[in-house]
Prior knowledge:
Strand content: 5-15%
Strand order of the largest sheet: 4-3-5-10-6
Oligomer: single chain
Number of strands: 10
CATH superfamily of the largest domain: Periplasmic binding protein-like II
Low-confidence stretches: 1-35
Radius of gyration: 22 Å
CATH topology of the largest domain: D-Maltodextrin-Binding Protein, domain 2
Number of helices: 17
Amino acid sequence: MSDFNRRKILKSSAGIAAAASLGVGTAIFSPLANAQTLTYKPEKGAKLRVLRWSRFVQGDIDAYMANVKKFSEATGIEVRVDNEGWEDVRPKAAVAANTGAGPDIILSTNDDANLYPDKLLDVTDLAEYLGKKYGGWYTAGELFMRPDGKKWIGLPLGASGSLIVYRESMVKAAGFDKFPTTNDEFLKLYKALKDKGTPGGMALGNATGDSTWTNWLIWSFGGKLVDKNNKVVIDSPETLKALEYAKELYANFIPGTLSWLDPNNNKAFLDGQISITNNGISIYYAAKNSPDPKVKEMAADINHAVFPVGPVGVPTESHLFFNQMVMKYTKYPQAAKEFLRFMMERPQFDDWLKGAGGYVAQPLKAYEANPIWTVDPKNTPYRDSVKNLRPAGYEGKLGYASAGAAADFIIPNMVAEAASGSKSPKEAAERAQKRAERYYKV
């Protein structure tokens, strides 16, 4: 999508922005978009049910529900919001898609939408409206939600950045004045932290969010699940080098990471068991807002960094992407699209970004200017998570195969097997190759 001059957009749309964000049933394109009009007329007696992932940051759900209340007050539409863990949303969404009954709107992760694209409502008109009004969608968001380059099967919501979270004092005590920027130095840091009795650890269980570090690992050595033609190529010399590195890195992890799910490293870090991990901003947020003085004091010692650059020579960031899907079976498609429009407009979306404390990075370029990213410099590294995101299906095309392979945790399982020694790197890569080929059928 082409970029727009933001100043011109703001200037030309100043008179209609408030009406567009709060008005019921009607949304208006900016004059730069030829004054087109997008109208939604919620169905009489409409009621909506939303299924979304549970919060790791209390401010996220507080701000989200405040916006839901505003929508209901403005439209008279009752909205029920159910919160489930990430691991529970995926199967419930699949059941709803297959049975044709359940929530009207589902907020899920990564490219789950590609598991059942024909079960989702076409929201192309809404996506184009929002993109034109707010500076365009980041490329990763379009790849996830518009895999054919034409129809939008959902709306990007954002991403929770998977960055390095570390204790500054412990990293310095281990002999590092600045955070490592290469894989070799990163390994040296992990070894030094273990020697100091302040080890680190990253999730190697089927963690929807925190296992994304394994994508970084494989990509950083030049490995990939599939090539540009969707041919499975994970069993490669580059992957084997990454897995050998994983063995060395894992040797310095705190015990137990093979079974870690998304909450485990948060707890271990805040309990003082580990000095470094990968996570969203939720650890820092929890520390700052903790009623425990000792935990709150820890916040001053917490900092964030992007993952190091490996032998491939370029950043290879992998983050947890969030989507918004309207199920085709909904009885209230107009109301559902109006709800998403309302929630993505600046007054609501800005408040939600701030409420979440930087836990979710925006999918629309205009929201880079949200003050949450600059009010605290420790928040800033998370700002560009969607902008720098590589989809899990790299470097192939997104679709059923990429979604299925990601949902089956093929890459995390391969890394866990090789790192722990339960399989040799070659055996782990061969198994991953066979598993992936079941999805990527020629």
